[in-house]
Amino acid sequence: MTDAEREELEQYRRQDLLRRMRTISQDQWAKGWMKGLEHDLYLMTFHDAPADYGMSVIEPAALAALKRLAELTQTWWVDEEGSGNPTVVSLDDAARRFSKVVAEDERGALRSMSIPEVKEAYQNAAAEDWEHETIRLPWDQSARHAYRLRSNPLFSLQRRDSEDDWELRFGKTVVAYVSPTWARIH
Q: Residue 120 domain-assigned?
């Protein structure tokens, strides 16, 4: 294979990665490039964050294809300006940018943690460290139950009455599904 053919193949793979990312955004949100798509997909693809996204769950095969193309090209697509015209960055740059979940605290300051750090904090917290609350949204018939970590309210466990697993969240981001034996619906 010539250098020109290799470059053409590389360009095709980068464009395929872009097309697949856009397709997920379109399928899940009916939007060509959902704000934060690059971050959310990075967490799902490289950190096994839950793939319940938008209108349905993203198929594991779709995430595997993203990972394969990203690793082959050593690239990832981002839309920093929110213009709908993403640009390519190195996979190392994407790892630095997107390997953490970000949340806004009660004072409006941004806080970030890696997914392993969030999971470790959850594992290290005792049952009595969590405070229960019931959330009722006007458009939702079922109640949403939540436990917030007293020492850091950005951490929460949430679930609806009709669900079995609890969502471990850092801010609004679902990091994992867990089944805490101590969590009870009051």
A: yes
Strand partners, 134: 145
Pull the structure tokens for residue 103. 């949340």
- Decide if 60 is inside a domain: yes
Number of domain units in the chain: 2
Whole-model pTM?
0.75
* Residue pair 123/130 in contact by the 8 Å Cβ criterion: no
Q: Are residues 10 and 93 in the same domain?
A: yes
Is 171 a member of any domain?
yes
Amino acid at 70: A
Do 110 and 87 share a structural domain?
no
- Give dist(CA 114, CA 133) in Å, integer: 26
Total number of residues shown for the chain: 186
Facing residues of 93 across strands?
none
pLDDT tens digits for range 15-47: 999 999 999 999 998 888 988 899 999 999 998
What range does the domain containing 149 cover? 101-178
- Among candidate residues 168, 80, 85, 169, the one with its CA nearest the CA of residue 177: 168
Q: What whole-number distance in Å separates Cα of residue 160 and Cα of residue 1?
A: 55
For 69-128, the pLDDT digits (tens) are 999 999 999 998 888 899 999 999 999 999 898 888 889 899 999 888 999 999 999 999
